[in-house]
Every structure is written in structure tokens, then in C-alpha cells.
Design goal:
Blueprint (H helix, E strand, L loop, with lengths): L1 H6 L8 H16 L5 H9 L4 H24 L6 H14 L14
Length: 107
């Protein structure tokens, strides 16, 4: 399914709710200065909350920032095997080890 979405989310075997999100995000990535209240209303009508849309916007904006920063500074990409290992680790353990509070101020 991931390959189908990456190839073309419009024809991928995903539900209409996710297609609406991808349409919103595509417009955000290509022409964020042209997003309108109607675009938000369409995404909301498909079942997305303001919080979910905020999260999607934030993730896309951060990836855009990171990609431009990496391109401009010459930081090299990880090899494919490293991504596979990272994906397996995240799938098994998540982003934080069990028992971690995430609050480094306590250390």
C-alpha cells in the first residue's frame, strides 16, 4: 500500500478520508500561500480534526526545513540498510525506550 501511495495517492487503495488529507498536504507543500478556509473545511468534512491538520502541517513543514538544510549543508543521507534497521527498531520499541519520561531536565 505504501508503494501505491508513493506512486500516486489519488489511485492508491486508501479511503477517501486519507485522500482528502493527502490533497490538503499536497497543496500545503506546493502552494501554502494559497491555502484557504475552504481547503481546511474540505479536510475537516472528511473527518480530520484541527489538531490532526496542525500535526500534518507541522510534520510536512519540518521535513521541508530538514531537507533544505541537509541539501544546503551537504549532510549525507543514511544508507538504505540504516533506514531498515531504524524502522525495525522503531516498530518494536517506538520512539522512546520504556520508562523514559523524555524530560531531560531531571538528569
Amino acid at each position: 500500500m505504501v508503494d501505491a501511495v508513493l506512486a500516486d495517492w489519488r489511485t492508491a487503495p486508501i479511503d477517501d478520508q486519507h485522500k482528502a488529507l493527502f490533497a490538503f498536504i499536497e497543496k500545503m507543500n506546493r502552494a501554502s500561500n494559497r491555502l484557504t478556509a475552504d481547503d481546511l473545511a474540505e479536510a475537516r468534512a472528511a473527518g480530520w480534526s484541527d489538531e490532526a491538520l496542525y500535526d500534518a502541517i507541522t510534520v510536512c513543514a519540518l521535513f521541508n526545513f530538514y531537507n533544505k538544510w541537509i541539501d544546503a549543508t551537504g549532510v549525507s543521507d543514511m544508507p538504505a540498510a540504516a533506514y531498515e534497521m531504524s524502522g525495525e527498531r522503531l516498530g518494536m520499541r517506538g520512539y522512546a525506550a520504556s520508562g523514559e519520561s523524555g524530560d531531560r531536565a531531571e538528569e
